[in-house]
Design goal:
By secondary structure, the chain is α+β, with helices and mostly antiparallel strands. Helix content is 22%, strand content 28%. β4, α2 and β5 form a beta-alpha-beta unit. Belongs to the RutC family.
């Protein structure tokens, strides 16, 4: 499998992500939007606590698919806020986490009006690419 991440000349500098991700893979993994619910279905209380719960949930989902953060080829981060400081705080928290390498790829960060669960402030959409199927073929 080949994953190429690059920033073509003429495009603006980024805070760690790449404008273009090109993939040659045998298997693609598409995660459902990861929400900040714990295993019991309770939502984490604050913005950064929700980001932390999403990191844990996403890591578990990737692992279940046989993927790692380094296999991620696209992320979309949704934050219920129109305050750039909130968006930056979530970006910083995610990129500093164990999921950090996932955000070096094609990534989009959006401020939105609302998300699916009452009190939900953050959601993460992830796509990964793998060289082989789970049986190593």
């Amino acid at each position: 499998m080949t994953i190429e991440r690059r920033n073509p000349p003429g495009l603006h500098a980024t805070p760690g992500y790449h404008h273009v991700t090109t993939v040659e893979a045998r298997r693609m993994v598409f995660l459902a939007g990861q929400s900040p619910l714990d295993p019991g279905g309770s939502i984490a209380p604050g913005l950064l606590d929700q980001a932390d719960q999403i990191v844990n949930n996403t890591f578990l989902a990737l692992t279940a698919a046989g993927a790692t953060p380094e296999d991620v080829v696209r992320t979309v981060i949704y934050v219920v806020s129109n305050d750039r400081a909130d968006l930056s705080a979530v970006w910083d928290r995610l990129t500093a986490s164990k999921l950090g390498p996932a955000f070096s790829t094609a990534s989009t960060l959006l401020g939105v009006a609302c998300l699916g669960f009452p009190g939900q402030l953050v959601e993460l959409d992830v796509t990964a690419a793998l060289a082989d199927d789970p049986d190593g073929r």
